[in-house]
Amino acid sequence: MRKIIINSIFILLIFIILCSVLFNLNKKDENKLKTIKVAEVAHSIFYAPQYVAIANGYFEDEGIDIELSLANGADKVTAAVLSGDVDIGFCGSEATIYVYNGGEEDYLKTFAQLTQKDGSFIVSREKIDNFTLDDLRGKFIIGGREGDCYKSDEL
Questions:
Q1: Which sign, positive or negative, has the C-alpha torsion 134, 138, 140, 143?
Q2: pTM of the prediction?
C-alpha cells in the first residue's frame, strides 16, 4: 500500500511539473511581441489611422507592440532616433537632410511619406455660414507653431 502511495505521489509530481512547463511555454509564445518605439513630431489628426490601429490592437495581432511617444520638433525626433531611444521617427525629411549635410557618418534614412503637406484647418469661434477667404480680411491667423501669427493682410 505504501508503495502505491509513493508511486502515485511521484506520478502526480511529474504530471504537475509537465503541466507547469507546458503552460509556461504557451505564455512565452503569447508574449513574443516585437516592441517598436516610435516618436512622432506632433499629435495630428493625420495620424488617426495609426492611433486607431494601436487602440484596437491591430499591431498586436501582427506581433508588434508599439510604444508611441511625442518628441516636440523634428530636431528632437532626430536626436531620439540617432541616440537609439526610438526605432522610428515621424518628422519631415528636412532633419534627415540637415544631419546628412552636417557630414555625420551615422545619418537617418527617410523611407516613407505619410502626408503630402502640412495639414492645417481654419477654425473660428463663431459659426460663419457660406465662408469664403474674403471673410479672413483684417483677421489674425494663428499658425500651428509657437510665434506663428499673421494678420491676413500680410499674407
A1: positive
A2: 0.59
